[in-house]
Amino acid sequence: MTAGPDRPDRMRLTAGEAATRQISPLSEPTACLPVRCYDTLREYWECPATLRRVYGVLVAFFVVTTGAVVFNGWGLLPEPFARAVPRSPFDAIRMAFSLILVVEVLELIFTVADSVSKAMGKQLEIMALLLLRETFTDISMLNAGTSLEQDRLLLVQIGVTAVSGLLLFMFRGVFLRLHTPYGHSDIRRYVCAKKYISLFLLLTFILGGAYDLGRMAVTGEKTVFFHIFYTVLIFTDILLVLTGQYFMPSFQATFRNSGYAVSTLLMRMSMGTQHLTGALLCVLAGLYLLGLAWTISRFADKCPEGAERRPRQR
Predict the structure, then answer these.
(1) CA 57, 60, 65: angle at the middle one, nearest 5?
(2) Are 53 and 68 in contact (CB under 8 A)?
(3) What is the pLDDT of residues 163-204, one digit of tens each?
(4) CA-CA distance, 314 to 301, in Å (whole number)?
(5) Residue 287 to residues 129, 188, 255, 283, 291: CA-CA distances in angstroms?
């Protein structure tokens, strides 16, 4: 879960992150408009004042929605609002988690230009929070007044989903320690290319969110935003594979980025399935990432052509 404006992991920069910080509207006044637009948006998003406002809105939203749910459960809301507001307090938790996930998705979009590996770590964060959100959804389905034996299968599902979220949190930490960052002689052009891809993801985020909100307002169905975004993310990973091959033509870099696309595909497959199956697919995606990172750090005996290998970060 996002820790706040003073997150310590922001202080450790890879070669890509350092190049991203160097290519800014102030240091590169002749940069093309999309790159300057990206830098301006990111600078605004990472401003401590902006983050405080975002987290303040999250707190206010949770308090208001929880109060509305409680009043609706007591029958105090008028009829037009009573039909739109859920009655279970766990629904308020689910909506709050959904907003937290939206913030995480935005951070994922901006992380792509820094480091593809750190973007994968961010994906593990998102899936861990998704699993925790589904855990609260399953808890809300427990039948009050019935014996636990009747809800045994649901209890197993709750336990597996919650433990899977914890495992993904652990996998994220190990993965970020294992991955080996690389420098490159043409790193600035490579980072600029990834900024174009980040802007494409940001456009997808806006259009997909608008479509999903309109669909929910008309049909009243559940959100499918994360299904849409992760579907686009799979194709984006393939685009990153081809872009990386253009700037770093090596089998190792191609295999690593292709493996990231496989992990993203497994995460996407976990959505829309039963919670138990989805949790197991997420754990499989995390294990695959760990195996990929360990294999590259252990058996990569030479650097990609034109790249300068850097020591592993601790």
Answers:
(1) 120
(2) no
(3) 999 999 999 999 998 877 665 557 788 889 999 999 999 999
(4) 20
(5) 17, 32, 16, 6, 6
Around Cβ 209, how many Cβ atoms within 10 Å? Answer: 16
Going from N- to C-terminal start, the domains of the chain cover 13-46+88-140+149-309
Residue 276 carries which side chain, given as an amino acid letter?
L
For the question of whether the overall pTM of this predicted structure is more than 0.70, the answer is yes
Q: How many CB atoms lie within 10 A of CB 120?
A: 29
How many C-alpha atoms does 239 have within 13 Å on its Cβ side? Answer: 15
DSSP H or E stretch at residue 308: strand 307-309
Phi, psi of 205, rounded to the nearest 5 degrees: -60, -45
Residue type, 109: I
* Chain segment 108-132, per-residue pLDDT in tens: 999 999 888 899 999 999 999 999 9
Pseudo-torsion of CA 192, 197, 198, 204, nearest 10°? 160
| C-alpha to C-alpha distance for 193 and 311, rounded to whole angstroms | 25
For residue 230 the two structure tokens come to 């992760």
In angstroms, rounded to a whole number, what is the distance separating the alpha carbons of residues 303 and 184? Answer: 10
